[in-house]
Amino acid sequence: MLKLPDNLPIIPEIIDGLPNISGWETEVLSVVNHNSPVFLPKTNLSLDNIQSGFAIALHMHQPTIPAGYDGGLISNLQYMFEHQGEGDNHNAAPFAYCYSRMGDFIPELVHQGCNPRVMLDYSGNLFWGLRQMGRNDIINNLKRITCDPTYQPYVEWLGTMWSHAVIPSTPIADIKLQILAWQQHFAAIFGWEALARVKGFSPPEMHLPNHPDTLFAFVKALKECGYKWLLVQEHSVETINGQPLSYKHLPHRLIARNSQGETISITALIKTQGSDTKLVGQMQPYYEAKTLNKQQLGDVLVPPIVSQIGDGENGGVMMNEFPSAFKQAWGDMVNHGGGKTGVVGFCGTEYLELIEASGCKPEEYTACQPVGQHYIWERVASDNIQPEGVENAIFELKQTNPNFHMDGASWTNHISWIKGYENVLSPMYELSSLFHDKVDTLLVDSTTAPSLTQQDNYRQLLLDNLLLQTSCFRYWGQGTWTDYAKEIYRRGEILLDKL
Q1: What's the domain count of the chain?
Q2: Keyword annotations for this protein (predicted)?
């Protein structure tokens, strides 16, 4: 059973109006770094009579913007409520309901004898924004299915980057800060025990870095922060030989090799197909799973899993069609196997713990790597990997292969998070560099590190640094959103002088 470290403090969710994103890093790492199973002791599923399964995740996010009273930081959701006549801001109330409704759906289905499963991915911005708006009703509804032992086995939270930063263009030094900030904020809201159960990670926009050093830093940070697996978009990875994945419904082993020749790996569940909320909104993963049968994985025959994630609030399908489709699918399962045999729903960690308990070994999962990396490793001698050789290979490839890039890959490959956004990226990298120049030497001293990260000025500066990396400032085009980014940079620059 899961055992927490002794004498963990109760930590506040909000400190002087700011989200609690720093100051208890030691406690966070002591809680998340364990190997105890989190679903296995409570699951009501047994692999013996399961043909196949599926796992769905709902991604929820609202950015933080400097658009409140006197330029204060507020949630974009709050702005939507306050400016109903602009764009699609009339959807503010439906969006708010979408953030809350799983707290109604799961208990309702459980009490009807169904066996539902759902994974939830909420950005730190969204958590903070809901609390800023006084929407305690939403937070409390989420607490119900997170902390109540009656409903907790049906719900899995996925970790993510606190401010919805796309990882390939996030400064490497800030990847772990983003991950830790989300973990600490989550613990402050839902408690340490709930945090200890967060073992899967959902990268914003399913954006996977393919630069060797960025990927290595990302996977290393995930493992140092206690994560066991991450969700990966199928088109963002390839086999070690550079081929598309041959079978996507079994776990893989994502290999990260850096320019020093170091290698690290982590389990990946493969999100199939592209970005289309209809896939989750109409419960397509369940119906696809019906067409699948058990597969050989190492020495074990296991049910395959169809993994999908979609925006949980965005678009008419999710707002209007998903509730009935979600409930209908679980009801259908009850009528075809009682919801526990045949085709079933899993949470990601639950599935991995079940198959590993049956004899599967993560080190035997089929290896994969980010798409395009085989071009690099074909040009670098495996027994002499050096940073200069890797960078030379990347430079040559960019000159000779018009399709080669190191921007990573995501479920929105028609959008670049880099091209055309130098006016956001340059300040973003500069603020990060200035931040680390200022604080890293202070953090080396273990006697001052905890007190520094608990200081208001540090927390505000860290917040500005993380907020500037929010993907939305590069998603909505030039204009208002890039202006928001410039303002956050300006404020961060001022704070640097106060630290």
Answers
A1: 3
A2: Hydrolase
